[in-house]
């Protein structure tokens, strides 16, 4: 009798935990290598640090990292519908566009893809954050200015949250090269807490 009760209680507790996890609001991060822990030990990236911060602050949210190294806004746009159906997120963080610039893709296409992603997420009932990116000066001042500006334009047009520059305090510091991996593109683990701090002000009000 006691054994049966214990098993029953355990089963009930387990199902309750599973139900609770399933009901936790999901924060879906759709990004590229900057969010996919490229070159880092698992758990060192800013997305993993976000889950830890949420847990430490007793927030119920569950972070799903749907980031893929090398992804473009076109790639993110094509795979977002499946991610929305699968995870039913409450919040979608879009961190894409850097690889568009590296490949020299038209800025209009990048902008259109970001708008489409934001609108699809909003149509699915999610709040959206657009994460901005910048390119080095060697791309030309006009291109760099237009590229940086398109993220703010998208966020304004779709009424989304906005992070001006994911790498603020990392790429723009005097000793920036000491904060990047040898490829000079991907930040070291020590940079990711700052990257999280850059995202947090836009994310916190949505929790």
Which terms summarize this structure?
about 210 residues, disordered N terminus, single chain, 7 helices, alpha/beta, Rossmann fold
Task: Describe the model.
- The protein has 207 residues and is an alpha/beta fold.
- It has one domain (25-206): 3-Layer(aba) Sandwich (Rossmann fold), CATH 3.40.50.1110.
- The chain is built from seven helices and five strands, in the order H-E-H-E-H-E-H-H-E-H-E-H.
- It has helices spanning 2-23, 46-56, 73-87, 98-102, 107-123, 141-158, 192-203; strands at 26-31, 62-65, 91-95, 127-131, 161-163.
- Strands 2-1-3-4-5 form a five-stranded parallel sheet, with helices on both faces.
User: Would you state the CATH class?
Assistant: Alpha Beta
The largest β sheet comes out as: 5 strands, parallel
Q: Kindly report how far apart the N and C termini lie.
A: 45 Å
CATH topology: Rossmann fold
Rg over alpha carbons = 19 Å
CATH superfamily: SGNH hydrolase
The number of distinct helices, counting runs of at least 4 residues, comes to: 7
Give the DSSP E fraction (strand runs of 2 or more residues): 5-15%
Shape: globular
Low-confidence regions: 1-19
Biggest sheet: strand arrangement: 2-1-3-4-5
The structural class is alpha/beta
CATH architecture: 3-Layer(aba) Sandwich
Number of domains: 1
Listing every helix as H and every strand as E from the N terminus to the C terminus, the arrangement reads: HEHEHEHHEHEH
Mean pLDDT: 92
**SS elements, strand count:** 5
User: Approximately how much helix is present in the residues?
Assistant: 40-55%
